[in-house]
């Protein structure tokens, strides 16, 4: 177990049965994940699914009600300064002091962060054509987002957390923002978590995916592995879910046949060859949408059943 | 310098699109042995794409023997182009375009054209045997 303070071999993010309750309602529960360093993670879920709750516990803004979360091996209740040195955060409304100039914002950043890279921050403003003397409130939305991102990058932290940073931006500003995020990740080992509603954009941005609905993680892992564990089956009607190999995630029935997105392990997917059945690979957007459309009740029932049944069927699967 | 494209609506995973483009360009002679591919950073920022995806595509090209990394210099095409000489390539393309126009004028659908080519190729192979 890597729990070294330098975080060399520790995962970028580890959550263990992490949960947060607001009064009687759980905003997030039973969240268990391990994200390797260097991953670019897409975090997807409807409003109220628990995305911001998860992100705020990761960055140490919110205390967990149960379970724990660690960033590069340092637990959330560790010294706050240590946590802040590992994570930078760009919030939805990229909050900046509106009456400050860009140069003032950077001076503040420098005073508050020991590892602040002033040269990089200034160089970025030059490249973007944003004069440091300009007051924040006179900048466009895209420019303000860029100043926020620059503040986050100049902290030189190994984890960058973006909570829908571009939802208020026009498509061009959004593209420019993400271009800089991707370029910053090259060769630096930077781990990035991007919460976004724009599923179609995430495919090219992320290699790791977390889908949250109803306060629970429904799907998490490397994108390639997740795609490999799902198939889109076209089967004649009537075929019941029980006859299908694996778990039904999404199903559309037409007059003569049904289209079913199923999750199964490799061995079961291999043994799909039934006459009249067709199995196609699943695309990224298709996969995410299928999980988002599944009702939290169904998902919860399936997850409970899977957890209860896990030890025995898995062993059987291996020996088959 | 070679430039990649990305088609967001194709359903083909981004890394495979990059691999296909190099293969295709080798077939068509747009890329030749010794050509340098753009750096991971350039592709990531040009296409606004995850750099890990570019690394994965380059690794796949290396695995297929089409490209190789030189430390500190970048990734280079190592396979000799499978293409014919540019002049005959151009001539072949011109005659193909003319043929395709004739087919279109005759009312052939794109699908029928593809089918006809497949059938013709099949018959040619049989003749050779």
Question: Would you kindly provide a brief summary of this structure?
Answer:
The complex is a heterodimer of chains A (320) and B (129). Chain A is α/β, with parallel strands linked by helices and 320 residues long. Chain A has 12 helices and 14 strands.
What can you tell me about this protein's structure?
The complex is a heterodimer of chains A (320) and B (129). Chain A has 320 residues and is of the alpha/beta class. Chain A has 2 domains: 13-223, Rossmann fold (3-Layer(aba) Sandwich), CATH 3.40.50; 224-309, no CATH class. In chain A, 36% of the residues lie in helices and 27% in strands. Chain A is built from 12 helices and 14 strands. Chain A has a 6-stranded mixed beta sheet, with helices on both faces. The longest helix of chain A is centred in the middle third of the chain and has 14 residues, at 141-154. The longest helix of chain B is centred in the last third of the chain and has 20 residues, at 86-105. Chain B starts with 13 loop residues before the first helix and ends with a helix. Helices cover 58% and strands 8% of the residues of chain B. The chains are: A alpha/beta (320), B mainly alpha (129). Chain A binds chain B through residues 38-40, 175, 178-180, 182-183, 185-187, 200, 203-207, 224, 227, 283-284, and chain B through 6, 8, 11, 13-14, 40-41, 44-45, 47-53.
Detail the topology: elements first, then pairings.
The complex is a heterodimer of chains A (320) and B (129).
Chain A: E1 13-22, E2 25-35, E3 40-44, H1 51-59, E4 66-71, E5 74-75, H2 80-84, E6 87-90, H3 102-112, H4 118-128, H5 141-154, E7 159-163, H6 171-184, E8 191-195, H7 199-205, E9 208-213, E10 216-222, H8 223-228, E11 230-236, E12 247-253, E13 257-263, H9 266-270, E14 278-281, H10 284-293, H11 296-309, H12 311-319
Parallel strand pairs in A: 3-8, 3-9, 6-7, 7-8
Antiparallel strand pairs in A: 1-2, 1-4, 4-5, 9-10, 11-13, 11-14, 12-13
Chain B: H1 14-28, E1 36-37, H2 40-47, H3 51-63, E2 67-70, E3 74-77, H4 86-105, H5 110-128
Antiparallel strand pairs in B: 1-3, 2-3
Helix pairs in contact in B: 1-3
